[in-house]
Amino acid sequence: MARERQLSRRSILGGAAATGLAGVALTGTTASAASAAREAREADVAVVGGGLAGLTAARDLVAAGRSVVVLEARDRVGGRVVNLKLANGGFTEGGGEFIGPTQDRIKALADSLGVATFATYNTGKNLLYKDGTRTPYATDGLLGSVPPIDVAGLANAAAVQALLDDMATKVPVDAPWTAAKAEEWDRQTFETWLRANAVIPSAKFLFDVACTSIFSAQPRELSLLHVLFYIAAAGNASTPGTLERLTETAAGAQENRFVGGSQQVPIKLAATLGDRVVLGAPVRSITLSGSKYLVAADGITVTARRVVVALPPPLAARITYDPLLPADRDQLSQRLPMGSIGKAIAVYDTPFWRADGLNGQVVSDTGIVRSTFDNSPPDASYGALMGFIEADEMRAFDASSVDEVKAAVLKDYALYFGDKAKSPTSFVLQRWDNEGFSRGGPVAYAPPGVLTEYGPALRRPAGGIHWAGTETSTYWNGYMDGAVRSGERVAKEVLAAL
Ligand SMILES: Cc1cc2nc3c(=O)[nH]c(=O)nc-3n(C[C@H](O)[C@H](O)[C@H](O)COP(=O)(O)OP(=O)(O)OC[C@H]3O[C@@H](n4cnc5c(N)ncnc54)[C@H](O)[C@@H]3O)c2cc1C
């Protein structure tokens, strides 16, 4: 057993070292295939999930002198943040990518690890593709990046946006279910509310695109209260959230990117934790035995006084808990589905659209890809067009072959950027719905009736089990920043309890 583990570990370290993960241990399939015996470890705290939330919690617990083991199901850290290799030797980001103003905690974490940021390419015109017409438009005018729809639609959209921002100020980010109008707002979908308020079709179109771009869910799927909470959460303790900050590139959530790719942050963070991070270790059960918890993963069991579960709620529900979790916590996690999302990245020799005066950002009412970004590297040594595939569009293609998706994506890119877009040098597709340890993204969302009925169970510990993950964050819920905030919050909670 010892020799088998040494061998599997060494072989993994070869690969891990290349990504900066040297020191991180691998167990799971390799180790369990080698022997039926499990590795056993003891720690003050077992952390389930090696995404930004779990790793941040572990960092703070270790800094406070506690022993920690992080159990991560995949053979990599980062969860919904991943760098994907390109055929030309470069890389692109398959998950969380952008950061922006008021996302202070992810920024501080990246700074502490020496991961710098650069501005998302945003020079030139945006493109509106609507009703079969392609309209490039400048974003430095009075309307900013708002697409040039008809005047009545613009007036309606401006009024609706102001109303949403105002309603959001009435939603406490730490307890949306306590808002004075929580019940009224939680018993209707965003679609119902939009139909009553965004009455001009072109205005409704703008909010539909904004909704699928932010949540990767259709307006009919979301509680209005959840949408208002999400807007309120798009800020920090001193700066109230706004819808604009969610949707914008300049001065918004898409403003900057990480040098070396976003996964540099969790990779470097995991490296500071060394072999406290165990890869290939999906946790199957959490069992209370006396005063301690047995956290059983493939190939390893950790005995710990406290457990941090840093997973999206629907995945946390796939673990077997003994004793059972309180009913309201389980009902909550039964009711928070993941959005449906994919990213399609087409790579070209050059970012040719820049020469046409375009910044690579599209808003469209058709096709599989309705929102795009220029994902080229900072030195523009090659071009990369990244397209989001979201909600209904993703679900329609979840079971399709990569070639089928590629054909549909390139058809859209050609409509938006011309025939050159039909011939990429390579193409990368990341479908989160088909990822066993995410099952969608970017975030779990609340349909009507969930926050008011079950919201209080979101962060309430169940005995010695504590909850983290971006879905538990008060600010920047759904974002990398929210994941980091949740890890910092849960570490404080656990330290106070230990
Ligand atoms: C396509 C896409 C685009 C996005 N774009 C942005 C963006 O531009 N900016 C931004 O800020 N955010 C973005 N996000 C969201 C952001 O990536 C997430 O909010 C954040 O990474 C969540 O971190 P987390 O640690 O809470 O969860 P996760 O990253 O999901 O981490 C959970 C970890 O737990 C592991 N796990 C699951 N089950 C088990 C188990 N049973 N046992 C052990 N481990 C388990 C998973 O493998 C994963 O590593 C995007 C997400 C996606 C999918």
TrEMBL record:
Show the Pfam families listed in the entry: Amino_oxidase
Q: Which residues form the signal peptide?
A: 1-33
Which residues does the annotation say bind FAD? 72-73, 283, 471
Family note: Belongs to the flavin monoamine oxidase family.
Q: What is this protein called?
A: Monoamine oxidase
Q: Which organism is it from?
A: Streptomyces albiflavescens
Q: Any idea where the Amine oxidase domain is?
A: 52-495
Tagged with keyword Cell membrane: no
Give the stretches traversing the membrane.
none
Asked if the keyword Metal-binding belongs to this entry, the reply reads no
Q: Which cofactor does it need?
A: FAD
